[in-house]
Amino acid sequence: MRQNPERVIALRGVHYAVGTEVILADVSFHVHRGEVFGVMGMSGVGKSTLLRLLMGLVRPTAGEIEVLGEPIHGLSEHQLNRVRRKMGMCFQGAALFDSMTVTENVAFGLRRFHPQLGEVEIQRRVAEHLATVGMEGHEDKLPSQLSGGMRKRVGIARALAVEPEIMLYDEPTAGLDPIMSGLMVHTIAKLRDQFGMTSVVVTHEVEELFEVADRAIMLYRGRIIAEDTPDQLRCCAAPEVQQFVAGLPQGPIQV
Fold first, then answer.
1. Does residue 169 contact residue 128 with C-beta atoms inside 8 Å?
2. Mapped to the 3 state alphabet, what secondary structure does the chain carry?
3. 1-39, pLDDT tens digit by residue?
4. What pLDDT does 4 receive?
5. How far apart are CA 133 and CA 250, in angstroms?
6. Is a pLDDT exceeding 70 seen at residue 227?
7. 83 near 67, Cβ under 8 Å?
8. What is d(CA 168, CA 159) in angstroms, rounded to the nearest whole number?
9. Residue 62 phi, psi (nearest 5)
């Protein structure tokens, strides 16, 4: 990693609670431009909540969140939409529109947020980003005609079409067979290596995350208990991290 890299995401002392239930507590980390940053942990530890906080879909109970140098925790909905347009989201289930073809799904954000674009330019971008994720030749298919991994790659292409600076992934390899999981990991790495894309990957699947992440944190009971490179996390002395990384039965660990 180069010296003094630009920080495009920064959280400082972030808390999030629903009533008396604390979901996240004193969460602080940063993400560099062009980095794949992982967020791992068992179900129910606040991983998806963290993504919603980054998108401004929920607001922290306390603490500060900066995205692309702008504090978002105090922005209005109108101001948040301006920041959100610089971020792409790959949902766990891809969240494609069932009645739209692949081309129509990928073009959706362009038509909604960039009405000034002509149809020729829209089709050019659609073709370009479908090729980026290896989905050329499937333009006229409906989501029901695609496998789970193919739908997720179309979801990535849809997010890329609006040319975001940051990509967020919620369980990108969940439910996929090993081949499709490998293709998803390859796609995330390709976006970093060829296009300098900054990515935040939320997952409970350690091996896939460690193949692509530059750094990662582990959440446990709503707190960060470890942050480092994959190699260092494999050697982390914390028993909760060792148990999770090794994929051992949870035993006495409680969440």
1. no
2. CCCCCCEEEEEEEEEEEECCEEEEEEEEEEEECCCEEEEECCCCCCHHHHHHHHCCCCCCCEEEEEECCEECCCCCHHHHHHHHCCEEEECCCCCCCCCCCHHHHHHHHHHHHCCCCCHHHHHHHHHHHHHHCCCCCCCCCCHHHCCHHHHHHHHHHHHHHCCCCEEEEECCCCCCCHHHHHHHHHHHHHHHHHHCCEEEEEECCHHHHHHHCCEEEEEECCEEEEEECHHHHHCCCCHHHHHHHHCCCCCCCCC
3. 455 579 999 999 999 999 999 999 999 999 999 999 999
4. 59
5. 36
6. yes
7. yes
8. 9
9. -155, 160
Closest by CA position to 1, among listed 234, 233, 200, 229: 229
d(CA 133, CA 161): 11
Say what the pTM is.
0.88
Radius of gyration of the chain (CA): 18
What is the chain's length? 255
Can you tell me the distance from the alpha carbon of 217 to that of 84, in angstroms, rounded to the nearest whole number?
A: 23
Residue 252 confidence (pLDDT): 47
Can you name the residues that pair with 219 across neighbouring β-strands? 224
Residue 33's identity, in one-letter code, is R
Residue 245 amino acid letter? V
Predicted confidence (pLDDT) per residue in 128-187, tens digit = 999 988 899 999 999 999 988 889 889 989 988 888 999 999 988 888 888 888 888 998
Q: Locate 246 and state its tokens.
A: 């090794």
Residue with structure tokens 């496998």? 147
